[in-house]
Design brief:
Distance between the termini: 42 Å
Helix content: 40-55%
Number of domains: 2
Number of strands: 5
Strand content: 5-15%
Largest sheet: 3 strands, mixed
Shape: globular
Bound molecules: zinc ion
Order of helices and strands: HEEEHHHHHHHHEE
Oligomer: single chain
Strand order of the largest sheet: 1-3-2
């Protein structure tokens, strides 16, 4: 992507330039999950808008002027959307995988102190479903995003290299079995937000 397509019109040019450096580094990390060159396409634009950060469409992300590190999550949507997991019941794991990726990117690239968001995922990874839900302020959100992300983070031992290995192992498992694998693998039903 050319810099002109990255957050054009952003109110703070120094911050925009800073975000761009993170974007390039993290997009490169996402590419490592594509497997082969033919599965990879660069993101073609990051646009500035109102409202929460979202993955708008293939190759396109929308962030707001106060955007936080949700950008890392949105970058991975493009990778997940082009992966074999983007069908059947596995497709519902997109948010959890994007959050797990964001966790790994925050851990690798952001300076201390850790963000509140990071601390939450990190903490969840040590807790049971019941413990998390007992204090959840937004059960549906935690069931869809942060709790299942913490299951992935735990399986990967909070380690980026292990997360990547896990990703490709799960791709192989899906191919071998010829069916959805993520609910069963993580012991979690993403469709109803409860452990199996
Ligand atoms: Zn998302």
């Amino acid at each position: 992507m050319d810099y002109t397509n990255f957050l054009a019109g952003y109110p703070n040019e120094a911050r925009r330039a800073g975000l761009w450096k993170y974007f390039l580094a993290v997009e490169h990390e996402a590419k490592m999950f594509a497997g082969t060159e033919k599965n990879w396409k660069p993101i073609n634009s990051v646009v500035l808008g109102q409202g929460i950060p979202i993955y708008v469409s293939t190759g396109r992300i929308r962030l707001n002027a106060n955007t936080d590190w949700a950008m890392f999550h949105e970058i991975f949507h493009d990778t997940f959307g082009r992966s074999p997991f983007n069908s059947g019941t596995d497709k519902a794991w997109a948010e959890a995988f994007c959050d797990a990726f964001r966790y790994m990117m925050e851990k690798k690239y952001l300076p201390d102190p850790r963000t509140k968001w990071f601390a939450k995922v990190d903490h969840f990874a040590d807790e049971t479903y019941e413990q998390v839900m007992a204090k959840s302020g937004d059960k549906h959100f935690d069931q869809t995003y942060v709790y299942p992300a913490s299951l992935i983070v735990r399986k990967a031992n909070r380690d980026l290299a292990q997360f990547r290995v896990l990703w490709f192992e799960l791709e192989r498992l899906r191919e071998t079995k010829g069916t959805d694998v993520l609910n069963a693998y993580f012991g979690y039903n993403m469709q109803n937000g409860r452990p199996l």
